[in-house]
Amino acid sequence: MATTMRQAINCVRDLLDKKGYNYKFDAENNKFTMGFNLSRSKLKSCDIILYVRPVKSDEDYCRTLLAYGTIGISADQNSMNDVCEYLTRANYGLTIGNFELDHRDGEIRYKVSINVRDALPGEDAVDDLWGIPVSMFNRYGDGLLAVNMGFSSVKDAIDRAEA
């Protein structure tokens, strides 16, 4: 049976409420936003933006839950190529999600999505939508900062992150 937008939104909302998370919901854009502290990175925090996306041909039904983890820094023009290489190396071998870099403005984010067209996801799958980006910024955040600020080579920063 196809998943409606209302079912998908309620699924996410119910889990967030159950976990006691503080969040905002923008009904016009079907968007949840929340913040998480990073415990193992100098980045300090990660904001999660979770979209409930409809099927293009029928706005009443949901196709995807799409989450972006964002941080408070951007790659600057001088380090853009090194940051791009760092994120590409970090992405290699990841099984769920990936880092993205917007070359126009240096925005760095981590993306995770799940298809919910035919069934509501389980609690673990929804948890992954914010847990994985937080985990990835905890793991790769310090290296990202070091590369972006010119304090480390890409190879050394990746080696430290993956040790």
What does this structure look like?
The protein is α+β, with helices and mostly antiparallel strands. The chain has a single domain (5-75, 95-138), classed as 2-Layer Sandwich (Yope Regulator, Chain: A), CATH 3.30.1460. It has helices at 5-19, 80-91, 123-148, 154-161; strands spanning 24-26, 31-37, 45-55, 58-74, 98-101, 107-115. A six-stranded antiparallel beta sheet has the order 1-2-3-4-6-5. β3 (45-55) and β4 (58-74) form a beta hairpin.
Q: What order do the SSEs take from the amino end to the carboxyl end, as H and E?
A: HEEEEHEEHH
**Strands of the largest sheet, in order across it?**
1-2-3-4-6-5
| Average pLDDT reading | 96
Strand content bin: 25-35%
Q: Give the helix/strand class.
A: alpha+beta
Low-confidence stretches: none
CATH fold annotation: Yope Regulator, Chain: A
Q: Under the CATH scheme, which architecture would be assigned?
A: 2-Layer Sandwich
Count of helical segments? 4
What distance lies between the first and last C-alpha atoms, to the nearest angstrom? 44 Å
- Mind describing the biggest β-sheet? 6 strands, antiparallel
* Envelope shape: elongated
- What's the number of structural domains? 1
Percent helix range? 25-40%
CATH class: Alpha Beta
The gyration radius over C-alpha positions equals 17 Å
Total strands: the figure is 6
